[in-house]
Amino acid sequence: MWDMSVRAVVSLIALALSTFLYVTAETLPIGLLPLIAGDTGSTISQAGMLVTAYALVVVLSSVPLTRITHRIPRRLLLCALLAIFVAGNAASAVLDGYWPLLGSRIVVAMSQALFWSVVTPATAALFEARVRPRALSLLYAGSSLGALAGVPLGTWLGQTAGWQAAFLAMSAAGLVILVVIATLMPKAPPAQAETSVGSAPDAGRYWAIVVYTALAVTGSFTVLTYINPFLTEVSGFGEEAVSPLLFVRGLAGLAGVFVAGWLVGRNGWLTMAVMIGLQTVALFGQWVFGTSAAASVVTLAASGFALASMAAALGVRALETAPRSTDMAAAGTSTAFNVGIMGGALIGGVLIPAAGVRSVALAGAALSLLALVVVLLEPRLSSVTSLTPSRS
C-alpha cells in the first residue's frame, strides 16, 4: 500500500503534468501556424482561429459545465476529462483537413473548460493549509510551462516530424497521466470539505482579479499568438530560430513560477501588480525596439517571466478570495484567462492586416497597462473592511 502523503505528492506531479498538457494543447498551433496552414489549405489567420475557437469554447462552457457536474467526484471527473483529451488529440493528428481538425479541437476544448474548474480545488484538497500555497504553485508551474516551454517543444517536434506528431505526443502523454491519476489519486482527500469555499472570501477582490486577469492575458496573447511572424518579419530571425527563442522564453517563465511561488504567500496583491507592470514594460519595449534582435530576446524573456508569474499566483489568489464555491471561482478565472487568449488572437488578427505585425506589441502593452490600473485599484474594491491589503 502506498502511504497517503506519497500518493498525494505523486498525484500533484501528475496533475501538474496534466495542466502542462492542456495548456500546451491549447496553444500548440501558435508555433505551427505556417505548417498547419500549408497542409490544410488555410490562411495564417484561419489557422490562428484554431486557438481562438478553442478559447471561445472554454469561455462559453466553463461555468455551465461546472454547474452541471459539480456533484460528480473530482477524481472520477478528472479521469473522464483526460480520456476525452487523449481521444481528441489523437483525432487532431489523424483526421484530414481544416474542419475536422477544428472539430477535434473543440472537443478537447470542452474537456479543458471543465478541467480548470476542478483541478485547483482537487489539488488543494490533497494537502493541509500550511503547504497548500506551495502545492498550488507547483500545480500552476505545469500550466505556465505548458504555455511557455510546451510551445517551443511542440514547434520543434512539428518542424522535425510534422505537426501531426506533436498532437500524437499530447495524446500519448495524456494516456500515461490518466493511468497514474486513476490508480493513485486518493478517492477522499483529507481537506476536501475545507477547500470547498474560499479561505478569505471577498467578492470585490475576486471580481477585480477576474477583470485584470482577462486584460493582462489579452495583452500577452495579442503578441504571443503571432510571435512567429513577429520574430521573423520584424526582428529578422530565421524560421529555425523561433523554437529556440520560445524555449528561452520558457526558461524565463520557469524562473517566474518559482519567484511567484515564493512571493504570493507573502503578498499576493503586490506580486500581481509587479508582474503586470513588468509585462507592460516588456511589451512596450518589444514595440519600440522590435527591430533589434538582441532587444527582442530580452523583451521576449521578460514577458514570459511576467506571464508565468501571474499564472502561478492566480490560482492561489482565486482560491483564497472565492466568494462562494471554489469550483465556481476557478471556473471564473479560467473563463477570464481564456477570454484573454481568445481576445488576444482576435485583436492580433485584426491589427496585422491593418497596421502590420509590429502593432500587436503596442496593443498588448496598452491592454497590460489597463490591467495594471485595475490591480492597483483592487484594495479599494474589497468587500471586506480592512486596514491593509490582503496578503493572499
Q: What is this structure's SSE topology?
A:
Elements: H1 4-27, H2 33-40, H3 44-69, H4 74-94, H5 98-124, H6 132-161, H7 163-184, H8 203-224, H9 227-234, H10 242-288, H11 293-321, H12 326-355, H13 359-377
What does this structure look like?
It is built from 13 helices and no strands. It is mostly helical. It has a single domain (4-381), classed as Up-down Bundle (Growth Hormone, Chain: A). The chain is globular.
- Tell me, rounded to a whole number, the average pLDDT: 88
Task: Count all strands and give the number.
Answer: 0
Number of helices: 13
Task: Indicate the structural class.
Answer: mainly alpha
CATH architecture: Up-down Bundle
Jot down its keywords.
single chain, 392 residues, globular, disordered C terminus
Short description:
This protein has 392 residues and is an all-alpha fold. It has one domain: MFS general substrate transporter like domains (Growth Hormone, Chain: A).
